[in-house]
Amino acid sequence: MSITSDRPATLPGAVIDAGLFDAQWVDGPGGYTGVEPTAEWAEEVRRLARARNATLLAHNYELPAIQDVADHVGDSLALSRIAAEVDSDEIVFCGVHFMAETAKILSPDKRVLIPDARAGCSLADSITADELREWKAEFPDAVVVSYVNTTAAVKGLTDICCTSSNAVEVVASIDPDKDVLFLPDQFLGAHVKRKTGRDNIHIWAGECHVHAGINGDELTAQAESHPDADLFIHPECGCATSALYLAGEGFVPADKVKILSTGGMIDAARETKAKQVLVATEIGMLHQLRKAAPGIDFQPVNGRASCPYMKMITPAALLRALREGKDEVFVPEDVAAKARQSVERMIAIGNPGSGE
Ligand code: SF4
């Protein structure tokens, strides 16, 4: 364990004032700690962001304090598109590493920082570029469709990216006679296969350990004890298949089951007439849902579904990023150019949807 000083850093071309906030952080096993998200901390974060001409982006699964201090909160793709549009020198992406890479791919001229580059993703890590090369060699004529939860190197080997809200549309746009390699999420893949009715779709057996842990038994028990609640379910969840089964068998009214991306959940929260909603996704999402629709009682299907990688973006890590200009995200230009094409092809199909 090491103590890191809070010495202010300078960015080429910019001077970062020392400021009055006196804090130091500790680099421990779970990431940077030792800084409380007080009002002074938030003020210092905002001051440093202005001094760096940085835009702060936070994913829906971040800690509430990180979401509240950010300029924009949303899903991974929406945030990456904002990153490309804003007029700032730097993007500080409070999310996991593949998300910051996607922002860099879409904004190659901006400096992109992630407060802790060790914040990975079990789903993105479930397929490497080498594994994808080998899979492609088995199906040389297949079209590769990758969910946005993939590394830049995997996106660089992909024909079309997809998000959880447009995956069905993207696969349906592909010549029905062509094989499709769908990766990396098996639950989203099963959802797409069911919806498109294609039997030439091959699905990589990857999963997110957080979403896979939200299982059908929990969902069934919760749905039975809250019969009037709507069910908002992310398609990466292990229970998504169970939810469709429960609806199909009439255990839960079909109109109460909504398979939604995180961005779609916010829209649905504003529209639903339900007084209570059971939410099957990472628990950080509850913060934005409660803000979007304060009159609704949102309850997690599994209150332990917390992503340890997202929670590595601590108040200490964010302060360190802004003071020291770390950790910078790099994507080799040749990889970024190919990855950008796969994202742009998805956007050209129509509904750009929203990522995790
Ligand atoms: S919740 Fe799962 S898919 Fe999302 S960042 Fe965490 S590990 Fe990855």
Automatic annotation (TrEMBL):
- Catalyzed reaction equations: iminosuccinate + dihydroxyacetone phosphate = quinolinate + phosphate + 2 H2O + H(+)
Q: How is the cofactor bound?
A: Binds 1 [4Fe-4S] cluster per subunit.
Q: Where is it located?
A: Cytoplasm
Q: Which pathway features in its UniProt record?
A: Cofactor biosynthesis; NAD(+) biosynthesis; quinolinate from iminoaspartate: step 1/1
Give me the residues that bind iminosuccinate, please.
H59, S76, Y147, V148, N149, S164, H234, P235, E236, T262
For the keyword Magnesium, the answer is no
Q: Does the keyword Cell inner membrane apply?
A: no
Q: Detail which positions bind [4Fe-4S] cluster.
A: C121, C208, C307
- Report the superkingdom from the record: Bacteria
For this chain, one GO molecular function annotation is: metal ion binding
EC number, as in UniProt: 2.5.1.72
Q: What does this protein do?
A: Catalyzes the condensation of iminoaspartate with dihydroxyacetone phosphate to form quinolinate.
Q: What is this protein called?
A: Quinolinate synthase
Source species: Gordonia amarae NBRC 15530
